[in-house]
């Protein structure tokens, strides 16, 4: 596979950035007609937000906040100016979080992810994501149909009935979780059913470790991974290069220090923040709570957009110490008060029957005075005492973890 979905995928990155940020002011103006965005972005001049640096000065909206916000102002927390009836479908996800689907073609931006995985017009796709209330099934269904594929809306489970459909329709593609694909293949082998028509897959929603990748490949299925959410649809996807995931077009992705909205240094692990450019339902700096890191350079497949390593864990590392919550935002505040420090990691352990904290901090100028200053800041910010361990620059791992609960 060497073709691309369209010319947008191979344009110069500078041209992409210019085009995205030329559209952003209008999207911001549209967002600010909704009461919640109007309040959050009060005083912001949309016409001045035309660079990544300017965007980074806007507040982040944490996905973890959405359940409470949606409950307080149903259904969309005041972040959508349009009436619910202006959308095509209305979903809910655990929380609950309420998600609308737009009426435009390919509203979840998934067609190019399927194309990168080898799906083509005229293919028949077995879609095993759930169609019940949550958007997963419809995300992949609408994406496949936008590509020109026919879809079997199978959903998860009911393997025996799915075998009948597979043997009758002979789908070449599968979309669903990787673990259900294995369940389906194992059950077919046990029952002597023919599912050999399935040759490619786009999987998401669950871990796809190398061992399972190898097993699926050994069964003559070429499987690719995609990263998405119920809020935004497909955010990034694997290509034939198999070197990380390429960020989808029409999205602005930032990687920030957990607990902040500040961009990380190139290559560092941080939290994914996404801004979408749909004026009907915009997301402005939605912090997903997922960790990743950007990869340098351009993908060998020829796609020029930003690449990420994929999902690398959760950014929300909040824990409870001696009955009090300690949050990544507090560790970020300590870093802000001591800008000469490098990475920080708060390690929570047990000493006997008592919780204990140790803040590890990178510095090139360790001293007892600095240690005491940081200890005072730790107590002031968290209202808890803890030990301070000063380590050399680069001593702490680049994994995005700022709180490590080792109890």
TrEMBL record:
Pfam families: AMP-binding. Keywords: Ligase. Residues 144-275 form the AMP-dependent synthetase/ligase domain. The keyword Heme does not apply. The keyword Ligase applies. GO terms for molecular function: ligase activity. InterPro entries: AMP-bd_C_sf, AMP-dep_synth/lig_dom, ANL_N_sf. Signal peptide: none annotated. It comes from the Bacteria. This is Phenylacetate-CoA ligase.
């Amino acid at each position: 596979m060497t073709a691309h979905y369209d010319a947008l995928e191979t344009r110069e990155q500078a041209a992409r950035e210019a085009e995205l940020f030329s559209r952003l002011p209008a999207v911001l103006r549209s967002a600010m007609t909704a009461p919640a965005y109007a309040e959050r972005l009060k005083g912001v001049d949309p016409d001045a937000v035309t660079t990544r640096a300017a965007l980074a000065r806007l507040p982040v909206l944490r996905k973890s906040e959405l359940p409470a916000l949606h409950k307080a102002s149903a259904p969309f927390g005041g972040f959508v100016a349009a009436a619910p009836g202006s959308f095509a479908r209305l979903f809910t996800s655990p929380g609950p979080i309420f998600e609308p689907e737009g009426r435009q073609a390919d509203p979840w931006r998934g067609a190019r992810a399927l194309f990168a995985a080898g799906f083509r017009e005229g293919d028949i796709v077995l879609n095993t994501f759930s169609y019940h209330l949550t958007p997963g099934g419809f995300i992949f269904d609408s994406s496949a149909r936008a590509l020109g594929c026919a879809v079997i809306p199978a959903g998860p489970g009911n393997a025996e009935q799915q075998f009948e459909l597979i043997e009758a329709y002979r789908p070449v593609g599968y979309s669903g979780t990787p673990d259900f694909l294995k369940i389906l293949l194992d059950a077919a082998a046990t029952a002597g059913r023919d599912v050999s028509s399935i040759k490619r897959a786009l999987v998401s929603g669950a871990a796809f470790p190398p061992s399972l990748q190898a097993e699926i490949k050994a069964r003559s299925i070429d499987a690719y991974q995609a990263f998405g959410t119920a809020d935004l649809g497909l955010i990034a996807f694997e290509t034939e290069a198999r070197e990380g995931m390429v960020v989808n077009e029409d999205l602005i992705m930032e990687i920030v220090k957990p607990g902040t909205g500040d961009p990380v240094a190139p290559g560092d692990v941080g939290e994914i923040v996404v801004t979408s450019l749909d004026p009907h339902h915009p997301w402005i700096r939605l912090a997903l709570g997922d960790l990743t890191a950007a990869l340098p350079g351009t993908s060998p497949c020829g796609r020029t957009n930003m690449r990420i390593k994929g999902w690398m864990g959760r950014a929300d590392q909040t824990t409870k110490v001696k009955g009090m919550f300690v949050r990544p935002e507090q560790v970020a505040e300590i870093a802000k008060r001591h800008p000469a420090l490098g990475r920080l990691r708060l390690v929570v352990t047990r000493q006997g029957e008592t919780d204990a904290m140790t803040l590890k901090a990178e510095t090139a100028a360790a001293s007892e005075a600095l240690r005491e200053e940081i200890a005072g800041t730790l107590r002031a910010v968290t209202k808890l005492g803890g030990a301070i361990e000063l380590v050399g620059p680069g001593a702490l791992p680049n994994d995005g973890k700022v709180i490590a609960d080792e109890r």
